[in-house]
Every structure is written in structure tokens, then in C-alpha cells.
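Sanity check record (used in CI):
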Amino acid sequence: MLYLIGLGLGDAKDITVKGLEVVRRCSRVYLEAYTSILTVGKEALEEFYGRKLILADREEVEQEADGILKDADISDIAFLVVGDPFGATTHSDLVLRATKLGIPYRVIHNASIMNAVACCGLQLYKFGETVSIVFWTDTWRPESFFDKVKKNRQHGMHTLCLLDLKVKEQSLENLIKGRKIYEPPRYMSVNQAARQLLEIVQNQRIKGEELAITEETLCVGLARVGAEDQKIAAGTLQQMCTVDLGGPLHSLIITGDSMHPLEMEMLSLFSIPENISESQSTDRL
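Expected output for diphthine methyl ester synthase:
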């Protein structure tokens, strides 16, 4: 049996009892290590689970999945995913590969950012299509996701923006030369995402297009959702450029153009005071 097990969003203890029981009896346990991270490292997970974990990077999961599935027809193999197992399409591919090989599978679900995002007070049924915001480079600055933000806003829906992370990535030079040298991990912050969004807004303004959002659009920044030091800040898109939410992982919500009074009241708990210094504002979060 192949088990896909969600680990939740915080630390080692967020795994379900059912998931932990399975982990402790599997012959091999893989930890998917590139679509998200927990607030603790591999060693802390191993200590709590009482099992050695095999790190599975993007290349192994996407190109060498047969190695993960090896002997899964005669023994139990666990594949651990931060959040919920189906938070990334890669894991659907693993299920399809297992099915084609005649390997049965079972999914043990857990909390993910897709539902835990409601901690800020915005109602889940009012969220539209989720988008991803990636790191821009000098030659690649995609804006196509913004059409989805615009569509959500037109329907009064909120947009959850999942922010980019780069783990075990190679520079173009090392990739071309085939050198297994990797760049340090990078995690996009709410500040970086907001600055890229403001640039898109300005580009659309120059083109004379109708603006879906502006510098004053209400947004919500979230950091380390599910952890004890979780932070939430509600303010304008412009304010999101400077608010300090600390370490990764960050997410950003662009609110819909109409909100329920209860949503507004909840967001007021996390509002960034106007005309206050950055250091003071972070103390309120």
C-alpha cells in the first residue's frame, strides 16, 4: 500500500493519530521537501515519529517516482506532505503512477493553507480561484495570474495568493553545466509579493486598463499559519510592502470588493495602525 499522509501546517505534532500509526509501521517513509515546509526540521520529525525519513526532492518525485513506489505492492510505503496530500498536483501524479502499477493507495488528510486561511476571519465560501505568485527575474516577469485576481474581484470573491519558494534550485549556469550545486533556499515574503503586485497595477494603469486592485485595496498578510508564532496583518496593498511578518512561510489575500460586516469586524483585530512606524506595527500582530 502507498500511503499519502498530510502533516498539517505547524510542527511534528500536527500529524493525525491515524497518520502517525501508519508512519510507524511502514517499511520506508519519504518526506516531500519542496512544495512547503514545517516550522521544524527533518530531525525533529524523526525524533517524534520514531522513524528515519528519506527526503524526496522535486526531481525524485517528478522524474523518479518509480523508486518511491518500489516494492509498494508487497510492503507499506509512506509519502509525507506538509499540509494536505493533494495541496499540490505532483501528488496526484504519484497516485496515477501507483494505480497504473496496480499498487493500492490510501490518503490520510490534514489541515492545509487552503482551509486554515480562514483564521483571519474571511469566510471560506467567499474565496475564488487561488493563484501563485512567483519570484520575478530580469527576463521573466509573469503577470497572467492577475486575470484571475480581477475575475475574483468582479464576483466579490477573495483571492488566496500562494507565494513562491525555491528549495534545492540550481542556477542557470550550474544547470547547463550539469553541476549538482544548489542555491540557498528562498521564500517569498508578503512584502515581495506586494511590490510585484503594485508593479502590475502600475503597468495596467499605464495601459489604460480598468484596475482590478489599487494601492488602497484591502489585503491580508499571513505568516506561519498553524504555528505558535503565527502572524496576521490586515491593511492596504501599499502597507503590505513594509509590514514585518517574520520568517516563512507567507501567504497573501487580496480581498473581494464587498465583505460581510462580520468579516470586517474580524479583520479589525489584525489591522495595521495608520501613521505608525514599522517596528511599532509589528508589535500589534
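The chain is about 30% helix and 20% strand. If this sentence no longer matches the regenerated C-alpha cells, the check is flagged for review.
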